[in-house]
Structures are given as C-alpha cells and as structure tokens.
C-alpha cells in the first residue's frame, strides 16, 4: 500500500551538485509540488563548489544558499572529537560522520528563516548518512518534515543510468558528475572513497583514485620535522609560530598530503547492519591526532587516561551513529574538557613516507619525572617495596595454583597447541 504524502509547500535540500541531488530537485517539484531551496555547506570542498548556483537553478531550485562553515566545522566538531580521542573501529577518524550534524543544523536554521516546512537529503536507504541527517533534524526541530527520496515509494530511479536519463530528459547538466566511478565525500578534514572496484575487499585501490595525498612511495626521501604547540588540547602554534586555528590545520593538511600521510583502507560496520569498505585520506587530522595522543601520554594520570580510552570508543559510536545532538555526547564532552585542562605543551613529530613519528613531547604539566623514572637510586621510591606489592597482587594466582597442585591437577595456563593450525 502506497504511503500518503504529506502536503509540503517549501523544502530545503542538502545539495552537493552531484548526480543524485541534481535529479532530486526536479523530482521534489514534480512529486510534491513544492518550492525547492538548495543549501550547500562550504566544508572545504574546494573546486567542487564551482558553478553550483547555476547548476541548482537550472535544476529547478528557487535559490541556492551557500554558507562557509569551515571554522565552525573545525572548532565545534573536529576539535571536540579529536580531544576526545574518538576513532571508529580503530581506524576511521569520522570525517564524514561529524560533518552531517553540522549540515543538518544549518538546514534547520535556513528552513526556519525561509518558512520551509520540510527538509530533504539524497542519502540512500543503505547507508549511515540518512540516519545522521534525520536524527539531527529531529533533535533540532522535530516539527519539520523530512523527505528521503531513496526510501520514497514514488522514487523510480534505481541506478546511475536511470538518474542520467532522468536528468537529460529535463535538460539538467550532469556531465561533471560522471567523471568518477567512486562515491566520494570531501571536506577540509578528509576525503572518502567508496564503490567501484573497492566493493571487492581484496581489490587493491588504484593510485589514480587518491586525490589529497601523494603516495608514500612518491613522497620526499627526507624526513621533515615539525613541532605542534597545544593549549588545553587545542593546537595554537606550529614550529613556535602562533597561528590561526584554521590556517594551522590547513598547513598540516598540506604537510600530510606532501608526505603521503593519512591513508586508511578499512571495512567498517555500518549502523544499518551491513559491512562497507571505505578508503580515507586524512592528512592533517592524522598528524593532529598523533600529536595530541603523545601529549596526553605525559599529562594524564593512568586512571584518567584509561577511562578516557574506554569512553573514546563510545564517543566514536555516538558520532558515527548520528547522535551528535544527544545528552550523552554532551556529558562525555564535559568529562573530556576536564581532562584537557592540563593538555598544554609541545610535541615534535617526524613526517616520512606515510609515517608520523613522535620524537619528543614536553609540558609544564607533565607527570613524567626523569628522576622518578630513572633506574638509579632515589629517595621517593624504594625498589624493595615492590616485593610486598607483587606478593599481594599475585596472591589470587598463587592460591589457585596451590589448590590445583594439592588436588593433583595441573595449571590451566598451559601453552596452547598450535600444531593443528599448520598447513598440509
């Protein structure tokens, strides 16, 4: 049974200018008889923003609104996630994930300003972005309607070829969207690649696929040393020179790209339940994460660091799953903010052929004391004290082993037999 369509008058569409959103504009007008306002967030897509207004208007939009949100993206989304140490499934630095709630925030603002009663997006029904967009809109203005064409029973476009035909029949220019077989997302933090030959997890990515970074093999043969200074977990200077946060990050992007840093090839678990292969380029972000981790290693006590590492997994899940606007994420930020009070200092890094190598870290709040860590004689720590500690710490193991011996048994900690795994 077909779903009844709500009666909307004006819709704000998250617009990229790609094939899908180019055909969604006329589809919304024809299907819902609505005015379509396109919105594009400038997240650092560079040349991808060229010619967008002309394309949007030719597609049938009443206007295109572009907002430069790069600084907001960096200060309000990238840095909090980095300070939290959030990494999804050990490798993904969440470059697309935390961009979606920012786009949704501005879509809601524009809808309210323009008197629109609904928002729309071009995310498919298989991916994560549909959740990120819609959950964010629900949290910010639950009264707005949401149109997801790829899940709509009136949406008959099922392939790239269908979309091209649909656009050509309506005189919509789409040639610029057909240059790549890959599905990509780009912003100042990263670029993602999906689809094409990457759908085979055994297939090696083509070097021509990469856009932001040089290959490690083609990177300079000389190591480049840099020094990043932090104040309360926020980078504030590069090589001793204070810099605007956006300029600093873009400089790190250039350095990382030059040295082939930040490439990740992974198979991840999507929120909707299926696995997906993605290849990511995150040059500046990779450098920044590594530096921040190095500073935390000397400024955080053991218990706080270990708890932070556990909470970082939950933080990454929240961001990946589109739950940026949630009480739990706010609560985790409160914890992170406390941990960053003493995160002030400098980290020296060596950049070389895809590697970020920490070669020094220092802080006025460092908990590392050379005199305490020394193997020599010291007054604050008597090495003989360790004997009593070890006896108490190992007591449960000792008791279990004694009981086993008295019962004629043997230790359950015998080495496993790996011979059965040998190939014939």
Q: Overview of this structure, please?
A:
Helix content is 38%, strand content 18%. The strands form 3 sheets. A 5-stranded parallel β-sheet has the order 3-2-1-4-5, with helices on both faces. A 5-stranded antiparallel β-sheet has the order 10-9-8-13-14, with helices on one face. The protein has 2 domains: 170 residues, HUPs (Rossmann fold, 3-Layer(aba) Sandwich); 144 residues, Argininosuccinate synthetase, chain A, domain 2 (Alpha-Beta Complex), CATH 3.90.1260. Helix 1 packs across helix 6, helix 4 crosses helix 5 and helix 7 crosses helix 8. It starts with 9 loop residues before the first strand and ends in an 18-residue tail after the last helix. The chain has 424 residues and is α/β, with parallel strands linked by helices. It has 13 helices and 14 strands. It comes from Candidatus Thermofonsia Clade 1 bacterium.
Helix proportion range? 25-40%
Number of helices: 13
Number of domains: 2
- Taken as a percent bin, the fraction of beta residues is 15-25%
CATH hierarchy, class of the largest domain: Alpha Beta
Mean pLDDT: 92
Structural class: alpha/beta
Query: Termini separation (Å)?
Result: 58 Å
Instruction: Give the overall silhouette.
Output: globular
């Amino acid at each position: 049974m077909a779903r009844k369509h709500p009666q909307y008058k004006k819709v704000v569409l998250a617009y990229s200018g790609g094939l899908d959103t180019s055909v969604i504009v006329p589809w919304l007008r024809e299907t819902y008889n609505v005015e379509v306002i396109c919105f594009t967030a400038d997240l650092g897509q560079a040349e991808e923003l060229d010619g967008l207004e002309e394309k949007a208007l030719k597609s049938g939009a009443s206007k295109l609104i572009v907002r430069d949100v790069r600084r907001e993206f960096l200060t309000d989304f990238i840095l909090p996630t980095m300070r939290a140490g959030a990494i999804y499934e050990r490798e993904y630095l969440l470059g697309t994930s935390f961009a979606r709630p920012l786009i949704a925030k501005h879509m809601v603002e524009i809808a309210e300003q323009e008197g629109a009663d609904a928002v729309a997006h071009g995310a498919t029904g298989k991916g994560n972005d549909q959740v990120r967009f819609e959950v964010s809109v629900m949290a910010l203005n639950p009264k707005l309607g949401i149109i997801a064409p790829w899940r709509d029973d009136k949406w008959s476009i099922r392939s790239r070829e269908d979309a091209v035909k649909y656009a050509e029949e309506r005189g919509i220019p789409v040639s610029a969207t057909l240059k790549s077989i890959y599905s990509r997302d780009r912003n100042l933090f990263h670029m993602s690649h999906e689809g094409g030959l990457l759908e085979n997890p055994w297939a090696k990515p083509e070097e021509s696929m990469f856009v932001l970074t040089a290959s490690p093999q083609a990177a300079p043969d000389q190591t480049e040393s840099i020094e990043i200074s932090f104040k309360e977990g926020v980078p504030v200077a590069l090589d001793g020179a204070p810099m605007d946060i956006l300029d600093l990050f873009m400089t790190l992007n250039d350095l990382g790209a030059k040295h082939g840093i930040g490439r990740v090839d992974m198979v991840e678990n999507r929120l909707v339940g299926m696995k997906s292969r993605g290849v990511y380029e995150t040059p500046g972000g990779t450098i920044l994460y590594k530096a921040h981790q190095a500073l935390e290693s000397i400024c955080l006590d053991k218990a706080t660091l270990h708890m932070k590492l556990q909470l970082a997994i939950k933080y990454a899940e929240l961001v990946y799953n589109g739950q940026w606007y949630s009480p739990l994420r706010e609560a985790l930020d409160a914890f992170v903010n406390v941990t960053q009070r003493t995160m002030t200092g400098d980290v020296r890094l060596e950049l070389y052929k895809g590697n970020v190598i920490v070669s020094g870290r220092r802080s006025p709040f460092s908990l590392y004391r050379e005199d305490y860590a020394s193997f020599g004689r010291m007054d604050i720590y008597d090495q003989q004290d360790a004997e009593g500690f070890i006896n108490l710490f190992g007591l449960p193991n000792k008791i279990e082993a004694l009981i086993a011996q008295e019962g004629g048994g043997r230790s359950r900690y015998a080495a496993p037999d790996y011979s059965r795994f040998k190939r014939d």
